[in-house]
């Protein structure tokens, strides 16, 4: 509570020299932010990053693909130790289909939330597949992107296209969306 004890005099009584120093401080602070912005802009030019998302029911996965060493992580954990083990192969499908050569120089970091185990794995595989296609389109060449996209679509369309099905809302007169209460005529 020291800041309560120190009081600045009203603006009208301030001398001109302090007003000039305020202007100078403002100029210096804007210069330093411009320097920061320029540094961030040059880093953005060198950093090749693409963000894509995959969805399945209530699960949403966001994949960030950038130039790197071929590391794939899901929520900070390597994809090789993803649980449940049975669905691990399903999450690795884009990598197995396209081969390690295409993933060799790309790091993929995936964040996934919502849904259950199976939905999350399907969202992860979609995010990874869409991320690779977007990365190749933006930073490599159009022909290799077209090859990758055709290969993925030929194997399974849900690798690139989200499943639009959603639960139907419950209606009155029954326990669910379509089920009705039974009638008895006795």
Mind explaining what this structure looks like?
The protein is α+β, with helices and mostly antiparallel strands and 186 residues long. The model has no long low-confidence stretch (mean pLDDT 85). Helix 6 runs antiparallel to helix 7. The protein contains seven helices and five strands; from the N terminus they run ααββββαααβαα. It has a five-stranded mixed beta sheet with strand order 1-2-5-3-4.
Task: Set down the secondary structure blueprint.
Layout: H1 2-5, H2 16-46, E1 49-56, E2 59-67, E3 72-74, E4 77-78, H3 85-91, H4 93-98, H5 100-103, E5 106-113, H6 117-139, H7 142-155
Parallel strand pairs: 3-5
Antiparallel strand pairs: 1-2, 2-5, 3-4
Helix pairs in contact: 3-6, 6-7
């Amino acid at each position: 509570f020291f800041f309560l004890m120190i009081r600045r005099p009203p603006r009208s009584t301030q001398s001109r020299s302090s007003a000039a120093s305020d202007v100078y401080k403002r100029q210096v602070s804007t210069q330093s932010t411009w320097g920061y912005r320029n540094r961030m802009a040059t880093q953005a030019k060198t950093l090749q990053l693409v963000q894509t998302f995959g969805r399945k029911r209530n699960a949403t996965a966001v994949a960030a693909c950038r130039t790197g060493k071929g590391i794939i992580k899901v929520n900070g954990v390597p994809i090789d130790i993803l649980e449940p083990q049975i669905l691990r192969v399903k999450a690795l499908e884009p990598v197995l289909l396209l081969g390690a050569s295409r993933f060799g120089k790309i790091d993929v970091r995936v964040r996934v939330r919502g849904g259950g185990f199976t939905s999350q794995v399907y969202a992860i595989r979609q995010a990874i597949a869409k991320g690779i296609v977007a990365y190749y389109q933006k930073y490599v060449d159009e022909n290799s992107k077209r090859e990758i996209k055709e290969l993925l679509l030929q194997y399974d369309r849900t690798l690139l296209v989200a499943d639009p099905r959603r639960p139907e809302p419950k209606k009155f007169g029954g326990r669910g969306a379509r089920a009705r209460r039974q009638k008895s005529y006795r």
